[in-house]
Amino acid sequence: MKLAVFDFDSTLMDGETLEILARKLGIDKEVKAVTDRAMRGEIDFFESLQYRVSLLKGMPESKVNEICKTLPPMRGVETLVKELKDRGYKIVCFSGGFKNGTTPFCEKYGIDADFSNILHAKDGILTGKVGGEMMFGTSKGEMLKRLQHLLGITSKDTMAVGDGANDLSMFKYADTRVAFCAKPVLREHATIVIENKDLSEILKYI
Fold first, then answer.
1. pLDDT tier at 182 (50, 70, 90 boundaries)?
2. Which of 162, 34, 17, 23 is nearest to 98 (CA)?
3. How far is 160 from 147, CA to CA, in rounded Å?
4. Cα–Cα nearest to 80, from 189, 184, 162, 6
């Protein structure tokens, strides 16, 4: 058995969940500016996540779920997932985003598990607070290490795929490190660099 771990926003999914949600509130430019800085590693991921989520305060949870069910897949995701499964991979999604998006997406495309965050809501309305499994810049690496221990898989049989600075921590535990249309900070540490927005291109290298 092998393990393939993917980031969600701008990797498995073609876009940024927070920006897509913020667009409905007319604050997507402000959210995008903070997201870009966090993905380049210029500001702390935890602080940037808290700030961006705070801007969603007052949004109906039902609206969030409705939007998240229609998040666009990255080109090639179906082909890649099918081929990896045929090759004996377990496929997991790690996301600093939210279960509202990752869970239905992973169920739809046959991804084995998702680890992400939860938008807190009270009486069906977002409070602007967030918690969960992927709150920090180190969270993906820590979770990957646990998964490898549970599954009996080493870094030699692990592939990690991402696009931003918060994916660096999982690169530490994967011998195959794919920078997918990624920021320079991640490309520097990759063994494979994909510049075209098509996930199936990964298959040429593994």
1. very high
2. 17
3. 13
4. 6
Residues 6+ apart with CB under 8 A from 124: 60, 61, 62
Under DSSP, is residue 53 helix (H, G, I), strand (E, B) or coil?
A: helix
What is the DSSP secondary structure assignment for residue 27, as one 8-state letter? -
Q: Give CATH superfamily name and number for 2-204.
A: HAD superfamily/HAD-like (3.40.50.1000)
Encode pLDDT of 57-68 as tens digits. Answer: 999 999 999 999
What are the pLDDT digits (tens) for 145-154?
A: 999 999 999 9
**C-alpha span between 168 and 161 (Å, rounded):** 10
| Per-residue pLDDT, 8 | 97
| DSSP H/E element including 15 | none
Residues recognised as catalytic: 7, 9
pTM score of the predicted model: 0.92
Q: What is the mean pLDDT of residues 136-141?
A: 94
